[in-house]
Amino acid sequence: MSAKMGKFAGWESVSANISGPQESPLFPQGYLDAGQIDALKALAASLRNHGAVLADEVGMGKTRIAVALALAVKRSGGRVALVVPPVIAPQWRDEITKASERSKDILRSFDGLMREYETDGAARMDDALVILSHRFGDMRAQTSGIRWRADLLKLIVRRLDKK
């Protein structure tokens, strides 16, 4: 963990950030409606004991609830990886922006992370909020392209290391 990152204060702190009064609001006024705020509070109560699944109809605000929860975790010193299909990453970044937060573009692959690291040093290592492709961990050997040998090596390592 980077020296810039704080220690995660725990799920009690996340719950307090969601439920309690704050000097600076967790998200802008009107970002969540009353039902979404209730769902967020229920998530906060459930996560500290056994986790939770957030599911409902299309257009009911699951993304906004998840972004608000991510902000509460971040405010508590934690780190969040939002794992999404790349096709909806722009929607997630838009919601993060509406919540008065910033994030970098989606990180699609381990190779992309390594390219960023080679270019920028500790790219994303200090970010408390990262959007990852749901296929980030895919390791495939392609017969063409510059990275096929590295992809093949990752496949071999994965096969040998059963853990």
What does this structure look like?
- With 163 residues, the chain is mainly alpha-helical.
- Helix content is 44%, strand content 6%.
- It contains 6 helices and 2 strands; from the N terminus they run αααβααβα.
- A two-stranded parallel ribbon has the order 1-2.
- The two termini are 23 Å apart.
- The model has no long low-confidence stretch (mean pLDDT 81).
SSE layout and pairings?
Blueprint lengths: L10 H9 L14 H14 L14 H14 L4 E5 L4 H10 L11 H11 L8 E5 L14 H13 L3
Helix pairs in contact: 1-2, 1-3, 2-3
With strands numbered from the N-terminus, the spatial order across the biggest sheet is: 1-2
| Subunit organisation of the chains | single chain
Shape: elongated
Distance between the first and last residues' Cα: 23 Å
How much is the radius of gyration in Å? 18 Å
Strand content: 5-15%
Mean pLDDT: 81
**Structural class by helix and strand composition:** mainly alpha
Number of strands: 2
What string, H for helix and E for strand, traces the elements in order?
A: HHHEHHEH
Described by strand count, sense and barrel closure, the largest sheet is: 2 strands, parallel
Helix proportion of residues, in percent? 40-55%
Number of helices in the DSSP assignment? 6
Question: What's the short story on this structure?
Answer:
The protein has helices spanning 11-19, 34-47, 62-75, 89-98, 110-120, 148-160, and strands spanning 80-84, 129-133. The protein is mostly helical and 163 residues long.
